[in-house]
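User: Predict the structure for this protein chain, please.
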Amino acid sequence: MRQRDIPGLRQFLAGNPELSISPSRSNSTMVEGSFSFSAETRGYERIDDTYQLKIIIPDAFPGELPSVIETGGKIPRDGNYHVNPGNNTLCLGSPLRLFFLIREERTLVKFAEKCLVPYLYAISHRLRFGGDFPFGELAHGQEGIVFDYMNLFRLKSREQVLSTLEILSKRKRVANKRPCPCGCRKSLGSCDFRWKINKFRLVASRRWFRQDSLGGNT
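Assistant: Here is the predicted structure, written as structure tokens:
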């Protein structure tokens, strides 16, 4: 992907002058440097902080999400700060939740605002004050992802979530003939649940639901 084709890249770099594009051996675009933010949320202190980051933007963005690595050693790798073991990428949230957060503006600027800054705010808050994360936290791995998808879809079980993801990987005309995941014993096309999940078709592609919907850690 050519750099000018990355939605919001130019604006993101202009707003973060200590970040710059670095050479990459892959087709992804890599942005590295100091990322500073200032944020607050109701009931919690305002925080201004800076992290050294490497942001890896895949060719398919915004169809695929960027990966972020903290390179300054500020975030502990002890399992309590949601850093994926092995590749050290930051666990910003469940994949579908992140897509949903940027659904109205699928740019790198919005990804940083809606996905990256809340995570860094929560990390800074714990590092400074201890205690729980301000926004709560999910369990690691697929357990946490499935739990968050249960909330997104308003379902009650892992099996219902997996069935919903499988249905979202199908064309509508095929999916509507399948049993509805909500457990009503109707076909999806005869149940109002179809309206709840149709909005997610606009968030991610059928391919993504087929291959990557449970592919991250939290």
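Helices lie at 9-15, 95-101, 108-129, 141-153, 158-168, 172-175, 193-198, 206-211.
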